[in-house]
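Support request from a user on the community tier.

User writes: "When I paste my C-alpha coordinates into the form, the page sometimes reloads and wipes my input. The last time it worked, I copied everything first. Here is what I submitted, just in case something in the input itself triggers the reload:"
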Protein backbone atom coordinates (compact mmCIF):
# COMPACT_ATOMS: atom_id res chain seq x y z
CA UNK A 1 0.00 0.00 0.00
CA UNK A 2 1.49 3.41 -0.99
CA UNK A 3 2.24 6.18 1.52
CA UNK A 4 -0.74 8.56 1.66
CA UNK A 5 -0.58 12.09 0.25
CA UNK A 6 -1.59 15.29 2.04
CA UNK A 7 -5.12 16.47 1.18
CA UNK A 8 -5.32 18.52 -2.00
CA UNK A 9 -2.05 17.16 -3.41
CA UNK A 10 -1.75 14.57 -6.18
CA UNK A 11 -0.91 10.91 -5.50
CA UNK A 12 1.62 9.63 -8.03
CA UNK A 13 2.48 6.37 -6.30
CA UNK A 14 1.95 3.52 -8.72
CA UNK A 15 2.58 5.83 -11.66
CA UNK A 16 6.14 7.10 -11.16
CA UNK A 17 7.29 4.65 -8.44
CA UNK A 18 7.86 1.20 -9.98
CA UNK A 19 7.45 -2.11 -8.17
CA UNK A 20 10.69 -3.93 -7.44
CA UNK A 21 11.53 -7.54 -6.71
CA UNK A 22 13.95 -8.66 -4.04
CA UNK A 23 17.00 -10.51 -5.30
CA UNK A 24 16.65 -13.03 -2.43
CA UNK A 25 14.20 -15.78 -1.59
CA UNK A 26 13.02 -16.01 2.01
CA UNK A 27 14.97 -18.78 3.70
CA UNK A 28 13.02 -21.96 4.41
CA UNK A 29 13.58 -23.72 7.72
CA UNK A 30 14.45 -27.41 7.47
CA UNK A 31 14.14 -30.09 10.10
CA UNK A 32 17.36 -31.77 11.13
CA UNK A 33 18.14 -35.05 9.35
CA UNK A 34 19.46 -37.83 11.59
CA UNK A 35 19.12 -41.18 9.79
CA UNK A 36 22.67 -41.14 8.46
CA UNK A 37 24.00 -40.48 11.96
CA UNK A 38 22.18 -43.35 13.71
CA UNK A 39 21.95 -46.12 11.10
CA UNK A 40 24.60 -48.38 9.63
CA UNK A 41 25.33 -48.80 5.92
CA UNK A 42 27.15 -52.13 6.21
CA UNK A 43 24.77 -53.83 3.79
CA UNK A 44 24.42 -51.02 1.26
CA UNK A 45 24.75 -51.88 -2.42
CA UNK A 46 26.21 -50.08 -5.38
CA UNK A 47 24.06 -48.10 -7.76
CA UNK A 48 22.06 -50.23 -10.14
CA UNK A 49 22.87 -53.54 -8.43
CA UNK A 50 19.32 -54.76 -7.87
CA UNK A 51 16.46 -54.14 -5.49
CA UNK A 52 17.01 -56.86 -2.88
CA UNK A 53 20.01 -57.39 -0.62
CA UNK A 54 20.36 -60.81 1.04
CA UNK A 55 22.01 -60.51 4.45
CA UNK A 56 23.32 -63.55 6.31
CA UNK A 57 22.54 -63.86 10.01
CA UNK A 58 25.22 -65.37 12.23
CA UNK A 59 24.05 -68.60 13.88
CA UNK A 60 24.02 -69.27 17.61
CA UNK A 61 26.63 -71.80 18.72
CA UNK A 62 25.53 -74.42 21.24
CA UNK A 63 27.91 -74.93 24.18
CA UNK A 64 27.85 -77.80 26.65
CA UNK A 65 29.40 -78.95 29.90
CA UNK A 66 32.61 -80.91 29.26
CA UNK A 67 34.09 -83.78 31.24
CA UNK A 68 37.44 -85.47 30.75
CA UNK A 69 37.64 -88.04 27.95
CA UNK A 70 34.15 -87.10 26.73
CA UNK A 71 33.29 -87.84 23.09
CA UNK A 72 32.38 -84.70 21.16
CA UNK A 73 29.35 -84.35 18.90
CA UNK A 74 30.13 -81.71 16.27
CA UNK A 75 27.54 -79.14 15.33
CA UNK A 76 27.15 -78.04 11.72
CA UNK A 77 26.21 -74.39 11.61
CA UNK A 78 23.87 -72.82 9.07
CA UNK A 79 23.23 -69.16 8.45
CA UNK A 80 19.76 -67.76 7.87
CA UNK A 81 18.93 -64.89 5.52
CA UNK A 82 17.17 -61.57 5.97
CA UNK A 83 16.19 -59.59 2.89
CA UNK A 84 16.69 -55.84 2.67
CA UNK A 85 14.37 -54.47 0.00
CA UNK A 86 15.40 -51.35 -1.92
CA UNK A 87 11.81 -50.60 -2.84
CA UNK A 88 11.03 -47.07 -1.63
CA UNK A 89 10.91 -44.27 -4.17
CA UNK A 90 10.13 -40.57 -3.77
CA UNK A 91 10.39 -37.94 -6.49
CA UNK A 92 9.65 -34.36 -7.48
CA UNK A 93 9.26 -32.54 -10.79
CA UNK A 94 9.06 -28.75 -11.10
CA UNK A 95 9.18 -26.38 -14.07
CA UNK A 96 9.64 -22.65 -14.64
CA UNK A 97 8.96 -20.59 -17.76
CA UNK A 98 12.03 -19.27 -19.57
CA UNK A 99 10.66 -15.72 -19.42
CA UNK A 100 10.39 -15.81 -15.62
CA UNK A 101 13.93 -17.15 -15.40
CA UNK A 102 15.27 -14.50 -17.77
CA UNK A 103 13.50 -11.57 -16.09
CA UNK A 104 14.27 -12.62 -12.53
CA UNK A 105 17.24 -11.28 -10.58
CA UNK A 106 17.29 -14.58 -8.67
CA UNK A 107 18.85 -17.84 -9.85
CA UNK A 108 15.40 -19.39 -9.54
CA UNK A 109 16.21 -22.88 -10.72
CA UNK A 110 19.22 -23.14 -8.40
CA UNK A 111 17.08 -22.06 -5.45
CA UNK A 112 14.27 -24.43 -6.40
CA UNK A 113 16.71 -27.30 -6.91
CA UNK A 114 18.29 -26.84 -3.47
CA UNK A 115 14.91 -26.60 -1.76
CA UNK A 116 13.47 -29.59 -3.60
CA UNK A 117 16.48 -31.75 -2.78
CA UNK A 118 16.18 -30.97 0.92
CA UNK A 119 12.41 -31.55 0.87
CA UNK A 120 13.01 -34.95 -0.72
CA UNK A 121 15.38 -35.99 2.06
CA UNK A 122 13.14 -34.62 4.80
CA UNK A 123 9.99 -36.37 3.56
CA UNK A 124 11.91 -39.64 3.15
CA UNK A 125 13.19 -39.49 6.72
CA UNK A 126 9.70 -38.77 8.04
CA UNK A 127 8.43 -41.90 6.26
CA UNK A 128 11.29 -43.94 7.76
CA UNK A 129 10.40 -42.84 11.29
CA UNK A 130 6.72 -43.60 10.66
CA UNK A 131 7.69 -47.14 9.68
CA UNK A 132 10.38 -48.24 12.13
CA UNK A 133 8.87 -47.22 15.47
CA UNK A 134 6.67 -50.34 15.46
CA UNK A 135 9.65 -52.68 14.97
CA UNK A 136 11.10 -52.59 18.48
CA UNK A 137 11.42 -55.95 20.25
CA UNK A 138 8.56 -57.03 22.50
CA UNK A 139 10.32 -56.08 25.72
CA UNK A 140 11.63 -52.76 24.40
CA UNK A 141 8.23 -51.11 24.43
CA UNK A 142 5.01 -51.05 26.44
CA UNK A 143 4.27 -51.09 30.16
CA UNK A 144 6.17 -54.32 30.93
CA UNK A 145 9.43 -53.60 29.13
CA UNK A 146 12.73 -55.18 30.11
CA UNK A 147 13.80 -58.53 28.65
CA UNK A 148 14.90 -59.77 32.08
CA UNK A 149 12.80 -57.70 34.49
CA UNK A 150 9.49 -57.01 32.65
CA UNK A 151 8.85 -54.10 35.03
CA UNK A 152 9.83 -50.98 33.05
CA UNK A 153 6.94 -48.76 32.03
CA UNK A 154 7.56 -47.10 28.66
CA UNK A 155 3.91 -46.15 28.07
CA UNK A 156 1.12 -47.70 26.02
CA UNK A 157 -1.75 -46.49 23.87
CA UNK A 158 -4.32 -44.90 26.18
CA UNK A 159 -1.79 -44.51 28.99
CA UNK A 160 1.28 -42.73 27.61
CA UNK A 161 4.22 -42.21 29.92
CA UNK A 162 4.19 -38.63 31.21
CA UNK A 163 7.65 -37.05 31.08
CA UNK A 164 8.66 -33.88 32.94
CA UNK A 165 11.92 -32.19 33.87
CA UNK A 166 11.95 -34.30 37.05
CA UNK A 167 11.89 -37.69 35.33
CA UNK A 168 13.37 -37.19 31.86
CA UNK A 169 16.66 -38.70 33.06
CA UNK A 170 14.79 -41.74 34.37
CA UNK A 171 13.34 -42.37 30.90
CA UNK A 172 16.78 -42.17 29.27
CA UNK A 173 18.34 -44.48 31.86
CA UNK A 174 15.49 -47.00 31.61
CA UNK A 175 15.84 -47.06 27.82
CA UNK A 176 19.50 -47.90 28.33
CA UNK A 177 18.51 -50.65 30.76
CA UNK A 178 16.24 -52.18 28.09
CA UNK A 179 19.14 -52.28 25.65
CA UNK A 180 21.40 -53.74 28.31
CA UNK A 181 18.97 -56.54 29.16
CA UNK A 182 19.15 -57.58 25.50
CA UNK A 183 22.97 -57.38 25.67
CA UNK A 184 23.18 -54.56 23.10
CA UNK A 185 26.70 -53.05 22.97
CA UNK A 186 27.37 -49.90 25.00
CA UNK A 187 29.16 -48.13 22.16
CA UNK A 188 27.30 -46.30 19.37
CA UNK A 189 24.08 -45.87 21.33
CA UNK A 190 21.87 -43.01 20.17
CA UNK A 191 18.52 -41.37 20.89
CA UNK A 192 16.25 -39.21 18.73
CA UNK A 193 13.97 -37.02 20.84
CA UNK A 194 11.42 -34.22 20.23
CA UNK A 195 12.02 -30.58 21.05
CA UNK A 196 9.93 -30.54 24.23
CA UNK A 197 11.99 -33.36 25.69
CA UNK A 198 15.08 -31.36 24.87
CA UNK A 199 13.55 -28.46 26.80
CA UNK A 200 12.99 -30.75 29.79
CA UNK A 201 16.65 -31.73 29.69
CA UNK A 202 17.87 -28.14 29.44
CA UNK A 203 15.60 -27.05 32.30
CA UNK A 204 16.76 -29.91 34.50
CA UNK A 205 20.04 -30.54 36.26
CA UNK A 206 21.20 -32.39 33.12
CA UNK A 207 22.35 -29.08 31.68
CA UNK A 208 25.39 -29.50 33.91
CA UNK A 209 28.20 -30.75 31.65
CA UNK A 210 29.27 -33.30 34.26
CA UNK A 211 26.10 -35.29 33.50
CA UNK A 212 26.71 -35.16 29.75
CA UNK A 213 29.66 -37.50 29.91
CA UNK A 214 32.18 -35.02 28.53
CA UNK A 215 33.77 -31.73 29.47
CA UNK A 216 31.53 -29.50 27.38
CA UNK A 217 28.10 -28.12 28.19
CA UNK A 218 25.26 -29.90 26.36
CA UNK A 219 23.66 -26.53 25.51
CA UNK A 220 24.45 -27.14 21.85
CA UNK A 221 22.67 -27.75 18.54
CA UNK A 222 20.66 -30.73 17.23
CA UNK A 223 23.42 -33.08 18.38
CA UNK A 224 23.12 -32.33 22.06
CA UNK A 225 25.83 -34.47 23.55
CA UNK A 226 25.93 -37.68 25.54
CA UNK A 227 23.70 -38.68 28.44
CA UNK A 228 23.71 -42.15 30.01
CA UNK A 229 25.76 -43.56 27.10
CA UNK A 230 23.37 -42.15 24.48
CA UNK A 231 24.29 -39.54 21.89
CA UNK A 232 21.16 -37.40 21.72
CA UNK A 233 19.74 -35.90 18.52
CA UNK A 234 16.71 -33.65 18.04
CA UNK A 235 14.07 -34.18 15.37
CA UNK A 236 10.63 -32.84 14.54
CA UNK A 237 10.07 -35.80 12.21
CA UNK A 238 9.53 -38.63 14.71
CA UNK A 239 6.11 -40.28 14.71
CA UNK A 240 3.28 -38.81 16.81
CA UNK A 241 -0.27 -39.78 17.74
CA UNK A 242 -3.26 -38.04 19.31
CA UNK A 243 -4.32 -39.81 22.49
CA UNK A 244 -6.84 -38.51 25.05
CA UNK A 245 -6.52 -34.95 23.75
CA UNK A 246 -2.71 -35.04 24.00
CA UNK A 247 -0.06 -35.23 21.31
CA UNK A 248 2.03 -38.27 22.10
CA UNK A 249 5.46 -39.10 20.71
CA UNK A 250 7.54 -42.15 19.84
CA UNK A 251 11.14 -41.12 20.64
CA UNK A 252 13.72 -43.63 19.47
CA UNK A 253 16.57 -45.09 21.50
CA UNK A 254 18.93 -47.54 19.88
CA UNK A 255 22.32 -48.91 19.01
CA UNK A 256 23.80 -48.44 15.53
CA UNK A 257 23.25 -52.09 14.59
CA UNK A 258 19.50 -51.70 15.01
CA UNK A 259 18.77 -49.94 11.73
CA UNK A 260 20.20 -50.34 8.25
CA UNK A 261 19.66 -47.75 5.54
CA UNK A 262 20.74 -48.20 1.92
CA UNK A 263 20.20 -46.03 -1.14
CA UNK A 264 21.10 -47.09 -4.67
CA UNK A 265 19.84 -44.00 -6.48
CA UNK A 266 19.82 -40.35 -5.42
CA UNK A 267 19.62 -37.94 -8.33
CA UNK A 268 18.57 -34.37 -9.15
CA UNK A 269 18.90 -33.22 -12.77
CA UNK A 270 17.89 -30.41 -15.14
CA UNK A 271 15.43 -31.18 -17.95
CA UNK A 272 13.56 -29.33 -20.70
CA UNK A 273 9.83 -30.13 -20.54
CA UNK A 274 8.28 -30.69 -23.94
CA UNK A 275 5.55 -28.12 -23.41
CA UNK A 276 6.19 -24.40 -23.99
CA UNK A 277 9.58 -22.73 -23.33
CA UNK A 278 10.46 -23.99 -19.90
CA UNK A 279 13.25 -25.32 -17.79
CA UNK A 280 12.58 -28.09 -15.34
CA UNK A 281 14.16 -30.01 -12.51
CA UNK A 282 13.34 -33.53 -11.49
CA UNK A 283 14.65 -35.52 -8.60
CA UNK A 284 14.42 -39.10 -7.42
CA UNK A 285 15.63 -41.12 -4.47
CA UNK A 286 15.37 -44.90 -4.32
CA UNK A 287 16.30 -46.53 -1.04
CA UNK A 288 15.44 -49.10 1.55
CA UNK A 289 15.68 -49.55 5.28
CA UNK A 290 15.10 -52.28 7.80
CA UNK A 291 15.34 -52.85 11.52
CA UNK A 292 17.73 -55.82 11.58
CA UNK A 293 18.20 -55.88 15.34
CA UNK A 294 14.83 -55.24 16.97
CA UNK A 295 16.38 -55.91 20.38
CA UNK A 296 18.65 -52.88 19.75
CA UNK A 297 15.70 -50.49 19.31
CA UNK A 298 13.69 -49.06 22.24
CA UNK A 299 10.53 -47.04 21.56
CA UNK A 300 8.69 -45.40 24.48
CA UNK A 301 5.24 -43.85 24.04
CA UNK A 302 5.27 -40.54 25.87
CA UNK A 303 3.68 -37.14 26.27
CA UNK A 304 4.87 -33.96 27.88
CA UNK A 305 3.88 -33.39 31.48
CA UNK A 306 3.30 -30.05 33.14
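"...and here is what came back when it finally went through:"
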Amino acid sequence: MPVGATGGTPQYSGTFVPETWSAKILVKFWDALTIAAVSNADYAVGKGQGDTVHVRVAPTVTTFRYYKNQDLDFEYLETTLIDLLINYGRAFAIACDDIDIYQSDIALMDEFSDNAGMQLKQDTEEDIFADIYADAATYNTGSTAGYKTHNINLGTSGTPLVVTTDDVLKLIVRAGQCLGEYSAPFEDRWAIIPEWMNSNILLSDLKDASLAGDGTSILRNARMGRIANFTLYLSNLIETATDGGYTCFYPLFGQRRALTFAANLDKVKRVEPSKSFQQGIKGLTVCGWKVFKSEALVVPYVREGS
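Agent notes: The reload is a front-end session timeout and is unrelated to the input. Residues 217-221 have pLDDT under 50 and may be disordered. The radius of gyration is 27 Å. Escalated to web team.
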